[in-house]
Specification:
about 375 residues, 13 helices, alpha/beta, 8-stranded mixed sheet
Length: about 375
């Protein structure tokens, strides 16, 4: 269905299939900015983190900017029923945080708790350079960091098989992925590079075109956001226990970058072997490949709010239009794009939110993974 007032291509059939009501904003978090900032202005009260630590070896960066090391992940089993029994895992979901985040951030933990409550095991990954695994690997992550992610997904696949063996199941349980913001971009790139890496993927507020996102965050209205992100990125980079090069120290210390693009030009692009920032943005943006061959992905849902102040919805609308033209949009066995008028950047706070069920996007992810799980196990 097309909304002729805003030009938004909506697809209510997706929500009907999943049994999820349409998104509504939660007062007083009205508008894209308040939705985006809700967890910062009013932090979520989360239970103690009892995730079991798991270290996963990753190779040195091809550019030589960082040596081999390990990434730290936390493994969470499904939340046990009231009778104290040990529930079987319906599937294993690898969760990836966004720019400047970690496995401990409110949004990622809330999504993990929602999935655990729905019967899923969860593996929360800390990307290269993110706390609390900062001292295990040098360098920082990028929107396309397949050399780091593919070993993680291989280890997760083995963990899924182990969970099935524990439950005396004859076949492995499915392996899914969920990425928040840039974490979703990374998983999209990994799946495009290695078909079969995941059995399903959910992305919330994920950049599909890095150049557009960089330009968006540089808008005058976003200067506070950009300053906050840069402070986190610079602090994270300079805290590298393996050290930084003299050029990097100069770029971050004496002449600190004023934009995300400048940071990517000085740090991200050269560390990951790109000749410059334009080559990085072009090579690490999944949109061109998604438009060319969406079937290269596993069944995937991309959620995007039209009022996201960080990630322009233009790319998601473009992908959705291509899927509609090919007759694929709305098919939950393929790639689906769900656009909402409101929700901000990874906000989606709505009436009915709770610690156990999470926010609206968490409930949507649980419903989508539950459907995928039922279909995968029925084959």
């Amino acid at each position: 269905m097309t909304d002729h007032v805003s030009g938004v291509i909506e697809n209510p059939r997706l929500l009907e299939q999943l049994g999820v009501p349409p998104y509504q904003q939660r007062w007083p978090w009205l508008g894209g900015d308040l939705q985006t900032l809700r967890d910062t202005l009013r932090p979520v009260s989360l239970p103690p983190d009892h995730g079991a630590p798991l270290q996963i070896s990753v190779p040195a960066l091809a550019s030589g900017a960082a040596e081999a090391g390990q990434l730290l992940a936390y493994f969470d089993r499904p939340i046990a029923p009231v009778d104290g029994g040990c529930p079987q895992s319906r599937a294993l979901v690898v969760l990836l945080h966004g720019l400047g985040g970690s496995s401990r951030r409110e949004g990622l933990r809330r999504l993990g708790l929602s999935l655990q409550g729905a019967g899923f095991a969860v593996l929360r990954l800390n990307l290269r350079g993110a706390d609390p695994g900062r001292d295990l690997a040098g360098g920082t992550y990028a929107a396309c960091c397949n050399s780091d992610l593919l070993p993680v997904l291989e280890r997760a696949r083995q963990l899924a098989a182990d969970l099935a063996s524990e439950a005396s199941q004859s076949s492995p349980i499915p392996l899914y992925g969920a990425g928040i913001s840039l974490g979703g971009t990374m998983l999209l790139n990994a799946c495009l590079a290695m078909p079969g890496a995941l059995d399903g993927l959910f992305c919330a507020s994920s950049p599909l075109d890095l150049a557009l996102c960089s330009a968006s965050i540089e808008r005058p209205r976003n200067r506070i956001y950009q300053r906050w992100l840069l402070q986190r990125l610079v602090r994270q980079t300079l805290a590298d226990p393996f050290g930084v090069s003299a050029d990097e120290e100069k770029a971050l210390g004496l002449e600190p970058p004023r934009t995300i693009r400048a940071f990517d030009a000085a740090i991200t692009a050269p560390r990951w072997g790109y000749r410059d920032v334009d080559a990085y943005y072009a090579g690490a943006s999944p949109l061109p490949r998604l438009l060319d061959q969406p079937m290269a992905l596993p069944p995937t849902m991309l959620l995007q709010a039209m009022d996201d102040p960080w990630v322009p919805a233009e790319s998601a609308r473009r992908l959705q239009s291509a899927l509609v033209a090919s007759g694929q949009d709305g098919d939950l066995d393929r790639v689906s794009v769900l656009l909402t008028h409101q929700g901000g950047h990874n906000g989606f706070h709505s009436p009915g939110d709770s610690l156990r069920q999470g926010c609206w996007s968490d409930r949507l992810a649980c419903a989508w993974f539950s459907r995928r799980c039922a279909q995968d196990q029925g084959r």
